Structures
1.
Amino acid sequence: MRTARTHRAVCLPLTLVLALAGCGSALQTNYYTLASGADPRPAAVAQPASSPIGVTVGPVTLPDVVDRPNLVVRTAENQVTLLDQHRWAEPLKREIPRVLAGHLSRLLGTPRVSVFPNGAGGPGDVRVRVDVQRFESVPGQEALLEVFWTVMPPAGEPRAGRWTVRVPVAGPGYDALVAAHGVALERLGEELAAQIRERRSAS
């Protein structure tokens, strides 16, 4: 009996130590955002203050495979991995149009850029819709963004096109991968701004 009691006395503290060790080794969840803060580059073209252009961005659609909180990385030609400890700080369907709106506001030199549906825009606004075809992440290699965009002016025919960019990843970490996606969105903003300026000058 004494042997059994001694065995239980030794096992109980050992079980407690193992439980505490398990709690201490819980993996931390990291959250990422596509917004990079203040953009140091100047606006490409400033519109006259008397007639600022109005733009409404959205909706933005995404493939179901990446429309989720987890970062989704490509690990093989026909295989992706969902990362439980690496997640987006907000849904991509909300963050992508918000980030694009910030780029367009800077590039077009206008504060009148809203995000659909929170800002429905005015009757004279240009409407920008983005259908993301591919939003692929290859750690340590590249971020790929392929979209089908539509620019709808307040008058005249809309213009649509397909646009693709591959941005090399500058480092091995997931933060570098997310930063590459941020650069891809900046370049998409430049493409959309050029299309908006062209449509406005033609109208």
Note: The helical segments are 2-24, 92-108, 174-202.
2.
Amino acid sequence: MAKLTLDLHDIFNNHQKIEHSLESIVEEAIDSRIKLVEIIPGKGSGQLKKRVVRFFEQKEIKSKYHRLEKDSKNFGRLFIHFKH
């Protein structure tokens, strides 16, 4: 199964780049009919992960994907599942 991966380590302190990267990967997954996106905010203090989760909880974004899964084995990773 094909999946997309977005590692946010390099842009952790740039809010605009984070938002743009998240929006881009969602659109790419939809356009390419990819069913799984892996997002790596990293472990750190957890603030970046919270920001990413808040992004995906927005009404206009939430309608684009099926479900968000927090990796139980790795605190610094999220999976976004799409239904196409």
Note: The helical segments are 15-32, 47-57, 59-62.
3.
Amino acid sequence: MTTGNKAQINVTPMIDVLLVLLIIFMVIIPQKSTGLDASVPQQPSDSTTPAPPREIVVSVRADRTLDINTEPVTWANLADRLKQILARRPDGIFYIAGAPSLDFKDVARVLDEARGVGISRIGLMPRVR
């Protein structure tokens, strides 16, 4: 019987490479994640008086008549009426709803009036039924 040397794997270089890779991955991974801020829903308050709706919808019909939350308004007093509403609900969300057959210039006119009185949060609704 011959007694020979047994082959063994030298694991020291593999452990060194593993530690170097671990350090590299720890440095590459960001320490703080970045993203968009999100608002957490709050519990409703126990107030007895309901708050007025925050949504302000100006509808422009196909015949170019205006409604603000189902209240008829003329083009001449649109800006004044929007100022009154903005004074009562400064955090309100403003929507413009235009009829599909309407020219965009009428919707743009309402948009200009709203921006002129200081409304900054404006959304466009796709259709008026």
Note: The first helix runs from residue 12 to 28.
